[in-house]
Amino acid sequence: MRFHSSKSPTQINKRHRDDQWNPRANAPLNFKKFILLTEGISPDDAPKKYQAYLMSFLASEIKRFYDAYENLPFFREKYHPYYLKLEHELFKQSYLNNNKLLIESISAGQLAGIQLQVSYDLLYGKYSDSSENESYAMPQWAYELILDKPPESQTVNRLLLNSPLESVLLVDIPDYAFKTQIVDILKTEIEIFEIYIAERIGGRTVFICVPHSVNLESISKKLNEQNHFIGDYVLKFEPCKPIKDKTRVRVCPPICSHPARIQRDLYLTSKLIQKLDDEVSKGMQIDKNQSFLNSLPSDINDQQKLDLQLFYLRRVHYYCYYGRMKCPSYMDLWDKFGPGHMRVDLKNDIKPTELNEGLSNTVVKVNFASWQNPVADKQNILDSNMEGIDSEDMDSIESYGDWQSMIETEVSKNGYTVSKSQIQWLKDVEDYAKMVLETDIKPPEMDANNEEIEKRWEQFCHVHTLADAPERFRCKLCQKLFSDSKYVWKHLKLKHFDKHSDIVVQSGMSDMKDLFFWSHGESKTNPFESLVQIPPILDATSRNKPVKDYAKDASRMALENWDLSQMKSGPLFKGDTSFYNRKRNKEYHDFDKPDPKQSMAVFTPEVYSRPTVKYDDL
């Protein structure tokens, strides 16, 4: 599937060849090459000068990235306050639709069989009366379950493994097209839909998620017969045909199955749902008695209630509680985490159900999360990784109760202990939940009626109002006649509102530059995603010691290369940013991303790349 144009490929891609920012075209020197190419450098000064070189390099890359992409829609949709507000309005509409559909599904009993658990035997291949004691004390555990073949239908229903790609329309659009243009085309034909856009060089691929009840073949045929255009491009809509590949399911550490932890997660997920619902629905007339939490059945147990609340956070707010991430869309969340996290049934009560579903040790593969370091002795590394867990940095949820003491006390009643690595995993979940509860997720405000915009609009109206006679005034854009100039101005605002939007966008360019710059330092446009990721640079004198405030220093140097007269006095988003700047004392393997952290600085625009979601006709 490709979009069609009268322009040649040479014309289409010329601007990208000339202007495109390529992070690999000018990679930074490693420490060895830097020493070889620098004259008169002493061993004592080398680490400090190399760090200064890396900061200068990243500062220039940040500026070069902005200069290359500031006029492209993907960049403006991510950083410009005007488009961020439009995106938030689209999310509010999706929230209303998804909230209603999910409540109706619960009322109809369609989610009655939900059970987000896998047996201890399926993961570890054994039954054991002491599995609880063994599992709580494990410093490493099964973190990913891979199904070699598509699961049976009943497994999909119980574990909610349905891929959103199964009800998606695909369409390619040119790189100068905005999401709102696709929304305007679709809203007259499809009542409920969500949009996710994958960025490509020279174009954008739009994923249009619709309810499963929508006939994809029928709606795509209807849209194609209408011959929709964006510029010179004819849009061709086609159903997505996802590849039936292996299904990857994340697994929580065993401690998440303890009754005390389930109660804690129930409490936190309830608070998160209340907070996010209230924030999104502010200003809407919604019956609080019809809220999701009030619609939960009274005859379900705590585990089923927690499963429903976890699914609600994922499907309605695009927030993976155990995965510690809130994404801009459900497609984006699925791309990163798949169907989400499952808890472990330590008593293997669910084993007979798994056998009926075709889930056995012979058809699944299990990956384990490990704290081991290949260059050091296993025991030494385990000991070193346990250091620092009890540091002052690791105890920061006072306002939400002493959850760690509560869990350890409850577990110790039966003579069990919890490994510090599992406590650390819970600590990360708690930290992220705390950040969500304390963060305002609204987009940055932009005053569309400020003096600058009004002045520019008046100038535009004067230029586009023609006086033919004392009581004959004409709109320059459409030649329509009016009896007074004030009616021409009203006409311009109502019928040519896109011109006013253009003025608003141009007036907010300095705000966009602010947001882009501050995303590397003290603030973020969307506090729940890394806008432009700058991995920590390790001190050359120690492989385990990151340079403090590196991102802030690099951003400051990038700002010095910009016109300061166009910048605001401070960030638009202000709040507690210690969460983003926190660094661990030890290198470790993330349990959800079991790869060692990078030690080399790389400027990674993760938003401008092809996604990992799979489809077979692009």
TrEMBL record:
<dbReference type="GO" id="GO:0031053">
    <property type="term" value="P:primary miRNA processing"/>
</dbReference>
<feature type="domain" description="C2H2-type">
    <location>
        <begin position="473"/>
        <end position="501"/>
    </location>
</feature>
<dbReference type="InterPro" id="IPR039727">
    <property type="entry name" value="SE/Ars2"/>
</dbReference>
<dbReference type="InterPro" id="IPR013087">
    <property type="entry name" value="Znf_C2H2_type"/>
</dbReference>
<dbReference type="GO" id="GO:0008270">
    <property type="term" value="F:zinc ion binding"/>
</dbReference>
<feature type="compositionally biased region" description="Polar residues">
    <location>
        <begin position="1"/>
        <end position="12"/>
    </location>
</feature>
<keyword id="KW-0479">Metal-binding</keyword>
<keyword id="KW-0862">Zinc</keyword>
<dbReference type="GO" id="GO:0016604">
    <property type="term" value="C:nuclear body"/>
</dbReference>
<protein>
    <recommendedName>
        <fullName>C2H2-type domain-containing protein</fullName>
    </recommendedName>
</protein>
<keyword id="KW-0863">Zinc-finger</keyword>
<feature type="region of interest" description="Disordered">
    <location>
        <begin position="1"/>
        <end position="24"/>
    </location>
</feature>
